[in-house]
UniProtKB/TrEMBL annotation, chains A, B, C, D:
Pfam families: GFO_IDH_MocA (PF01408), GFO_IDH_MocA_C3 (PF22725). Residues 4-130 form the Gfo/Idh/MocA-like oxidoreductase N-terminal domain. InterPro entries: Gfo/Idh/MocA-like_OxRdtase_N, Gfo/Idh/MocA_oxidrdct_glycsds, GFO_IDH_MocA-like_dom, NAD(P)-bd_dom_sf. It comes from the Bacteria. PANTHER family: BCDNA.GH03377. Gene3D superfamilies: Dihydrodipicolinate Reductase, domain 2, NAD(P)-binding Rossmann-like Domain. Keywords: Oxidoreductase. This is Myo-inositol 2-dehydrogenase. One of its GO terms (molecular function) is nucleotide binding. Residues 140-284 form the GFO/IDH/MocA-like oxidoreductase domain. It comes from Halalkalibacter akibai (strain ATCC 43226 / DSM 21942 / CIP 109018 / JCM 9157 / 1139).
């Protein structure tokens, strides 16, 4: 059985999701290259040691530079905070390692382009963590578009609605600080929507956006890790430097028009990551909170029974259905990471670039920045000019 | 313009619904016979006079026997309490009037059969008020069954769930007294389900039921009209003599099997009047709270896009759609009565019996009583034996 | 019984809806001023005569100028095409008649302001036909906002999705011609969304929009009335001069942000007229295709049972519920017009302006034009500058 | 770290699900006893060897009797076909092993009682695989019942609808043969509903059922494993000896009434495993196809905002939420097995019987057989008499 030796950097939310993907892969996809969970790396030796044991990594280290140099490592999987993606990815590429990097690729378009140049110069394989592409219901949407079953595309609308910081006393965690997170809802949630648009519809030619920070100051956190944190006792506050919500309108190269909304202030929505496509022959609607379902409509259905169908993407005809459970038995969030890892392993086996890769990461960053420009300039921005 | 002169008895909930149907009919169905709102009849002179003015009747009376004798009346529409249906219908038939009677036709199977005999002997037209047949979404279900698009029928399940008497202090209104109402949820709600089964699937051959009265005593009402009432001040209580819930299993003559549930104790359900049909080629699901919609599934849909479609029965292909509003603009409860009246007027014009008529009323009563027998006998009952 | 004598101009889609409202009103709202259906007016004598009989008007005429002068007319109800609203409304006001005008008030902001000046100068009552305000579920949303139960408002998003012209062979009806219709989806559908925003959230301060015409040429119609038409035989085509879809972003005076989308190219959506509000304490979601329902979420629900509630706005606590049917028995599209008429009658009785009135019509027109400016200028436009 | 050495018998559908549960458990529940995946056992040496490698078992064997005798095995997990459960479980208990047995416990009530006696005599721990209890949304329902938040329970209705054998050419697999499977939809699907009823509501006192086999003959399979099979070439047919659908009515000891339906002929339903509870204070509705959701209704909600809430059971307040992903990120079918394994490990650690155990298995079997008696006798059957 062929194996690929992995070194992973970061062991929080994404590190856990990726670790589990590698752990499950050989059981459900036994014919693929097996990811060997070699070394996990993190800053805190006690915590990373614990994570190694818990997740099933053979070794751990606190020195990512050493890790990258090891001859017995084939691929570096980057789940560290966004502000260190660039340095690690470039160094890893220089060391000849394949790179799997969580989104967003970097904090700026410039940085992401340097990363792409580095992996291309090194000739290594590279992938970016847009996991939502790998929900079978999303893959069905892609199939319907690609086979022309939705016809010419007119509309794409996408919205990623969360409410986890609706409480004004929720503390000023790193995700609310521009210097670490790059942006707020825009880079965190909007990035997923943009990638989905690229995947399903194609290139975006111009954009026009707006953003807002509803709660402008928040309590400084007394500690902060992953997604959770606790407020400071003294009640001292600091400025929120990222957007709470960012919306934008867009034109696609193929003539379709789009609207995008990313917000952390949509009360009642835990993680409504949705899109709708309207074409000349049909439409689809997806909502990640019901990730096994795709609503599908066809213009040419018999005239007395036209309506959106609720397709449960667990039938034999759907992606990965042979691997999981019988029809009607649903899968969850973590499966999108397993499927991502499968694509990575398949690409390595077939000696091709996985998809989505750093090109997709750069393209996403380009739109993110174009939107930011349009917000600052209060006008439309041509994406290709960036 | 041809007209039919109507005398209506009863002016509460159903009287209002029927009056509105006659009032709207000439506007939306101008080519049909027009119902002339001649005389309305009720026991309380002040109230019936007010109803006449409000609803648009030309005259009112408190004497239904006089009303029936009038030469200028062609049709008697009975919306009085169930315990007086029989006498009125038979007298009206004897007087040569057509009869439109609200459901349930009578309190007993025997009575309903006498009513049917009377209208047949008199050679008049007769109709029974199973209004739910006339929702366009239900008519679509019927069409799919009749055209064989659902294939051979395996399952029919129907449930009518309400919660209006969930409060133990809700008073002992007439609908909770066996001598006036005949039965509780069974005759009130179950009757609609049984008629729907007859309409959509066909004859029921045997049944087996159970029923329960959860709240066995209730405050005597200080007054009581229509659906509302207020409890007595003194808190005196009386026994509830009807069923709060009745369930039964059934076999149909065509081999299908069925389950039925009628209850007034389904907390949270205001009026969930639903059915589902499963056939060898497809299925449909209906819920009256979303009465413009029918969920439709076809086995032969392409294998990657199989799922229940939400069909909004307001398209050009659906019943009565030319008369109402553009596609997507929904209609409401009262429209089922307008459509019932349209069927009545059409039948009169074409000199045929309207559907559903007293035959359907008797058939419904037969199943209602068979279920009661099965409850008493704690065993299956052959419907045809009654 | 007090009465108000009505003269109506126009007898197609809206004329029918308004006529039915007046016809139903005295039956369901007997204590209000009664609308007396005096005269209906249209250009085609045969058709208007037929409409008069069918709808229940006492007289008909083809001369709206004569109609306006009649002493026995108190109110002019304008349902004619948008391009003649202005002249009729101003003349009617000058003649001292109250005016109820369908939306959009006029083709331009300037015209609508002249209309407002005219009714104010004349001291008459004026109303504009934003009927969707009068769905009980929408009124519940308004109540929750006004009582502060949603807290501070962060987001308003609204989308009106239709698909009736998705077929490229659908002919070039008047609604697709700028000189008659003013605009396409923007003025037809977007206007309703804008009014809903004004009603529920408040003033819009700035906007930024985009629009698109997907099918740029269509067959010339051989005839055209109301919403339907048939294509020309020869297949000659003409240019579509209105927008198929218009989207815009907005800021509200109170700090909320909004997104709006109106389109006739949302395949599968017959009439999805929807909005969502997210506030600091709660959220609501409305969809006109399920117009009796409001999804409601509260932040302070017990932590283990938080979720959007599907509220059926037919309970005793909801608007107009005493007038219609028991809880769970739904109403339809036409009821929004009946409720509009009730507001008009109540305002006349109480000698106050009805709401929404021409002020709301002008405000809506102002935003519509601001969006058009923003599209032409490709930048944000300050609404108050217009 | 404490460990428990497991020997598993069976490696198909359930064997895979259980294996994965043991594999995932140490990663997500690191503080619990770790299940050591020691030996897997099956009849076909090549296949079981492959399964061992794929699933992560240290060894494999084809001799379950040898396996049971091994000193280094603490627990036997039985996923073999139902007809061999009894022998294995009893032998394992005699050998002093804890036993985790898939449902149904046995083919008959008598057999299941012998199994219970055996494990009790041996003093070992025993568990039965009613995995659906362990969906967090189901656990929320249980919590609401137990805390009295639904009040006195009136109604329980449960339906498990599938359509995998709707095709008459689907072959005669072992699940359609009484001698191996015991029964059809009744024991396969109905058993889950009955256990859910026991878990949520309590003991069932009497039942009355019906069943039907719609397709009475099917092609003999040329081969048959797990859930899939292929029809014989020659088209030879054999009799289906199990029920395609079984329905029954029930009374609970606490006064509630229930209806149950299990069918494999509900066209369009891949795996609709649902229940609804109506109580004096509230109601809940669950559908396994949307297993992360529970619909919840409370009578004491403010009167203008009453309605079923869609609760996504992924919030901090819900079971296992700390272990999985952020709120709104759903889990799938396989997680019910992981949670089952957690209960088993916890019980072992705390030296108590896990729940559900063989008592629950016997109780379920008792109701299954009571229903079969009622079908044969065509009358109500007292469950306690069996």
């Amino acid at each position: 059985m062929e194996k690929i030796n992995i070194g992973m950097i970061g062991y929080k939310f994404m590190g856990k999701a990726h670790s589990h993907a590698y752990r499950d892969l050989p059981m459900f996809f036994p014919k693929h290259i097996h990811p060997e969970m070699k070394v996990i790396c993190g800053r805190n030796p006690k915590d990373v040691a614990e994570a190694a044991t818990q997740f099933g990594w053979q070794e751990y280290t606190t020195d990512w530079k050493e890790l990258i140099k090891r001859d017995d490592i084939d691929l570096i999987d980057i789940n560290a905070p966004s502000d260190v993606h660039k340095e690690i990815a470039i160094e890893a590429a220089k060391a000849g390692k394949h790179v799997f990097c969580e989104k967003p690729l970097a904090l700026t378009l410039k940085d992401s382009r340097e990363m792409l140049e580095a992996v291309e110069a090194a000739g290594v394989k590279h992938m970016v963590g847009f996991n939502y592409r790998f929900a079978p219901a999303v893959m069905l949407a892609k199939k319907l578009v690609d086979e022309g079953r939705l016809g010419e595309i007119y509309h794409f609308r996408a919205w990623f609605l969360q409410d986890w910081i609706i409480d004004p006393d929720f503390p000023l965690v790193w995700r609310l600080q521009k210097e670490i997170a790059g942006s707020g809802s825009h880079g965190d949630l909007g990035a997923h929507l943009i990638d989905m648009a690229h995947y399903l519809i194609g290139d975006i030619s111009e954009v026009m956006g707006m953003s807002e920070t509803f709660i402008k100051e928040r309590p400084l956190p007394s500690n902060m890790t992953g997604l959770t944190a606790t407020g400071s006792q003294g009640g001292e506050k600091g400025p929120v430097t990222v957007d709470d919500a960012t919306l934008f309108l867009a034109r696609f190269a193929n003539g379709a028009i789009g609207s995008f909304e990313a917000t952390r202030f949509a009360t009642g929505h835990r993680s409504t990551n949705s899109f709708e496509i309207n074409g000349s022959k049909g439409s689809v609607i997806f909502d990640f909170e019901r990730m096994n379902e795709l609503q599908v409509y066809f213009v040419d259905d018999k005239e007395d029974v036209q309506g959106f169908r609720r397709v449960l993407a667990t039938d034999a005809a759907h992606a990965y259905s042979d691997v999981w459970w019988p029809a009607g038995h649903t899968i969850g969030y973590e499966h999108t990471f397993i499927h991502s890892a499968v694509e990575l392993m398949e690409a390595l086996k077939e000696d091709r670039q996985p998809v989505p890769n750093f090109h997709d990461g750069v393209k996403c960053q380009q739109v993110l920045e174009a939107v930011e420009h349009s917000i600052n300039e209060r006008s439309w921005v041509d994406v290709s000019k960036l």
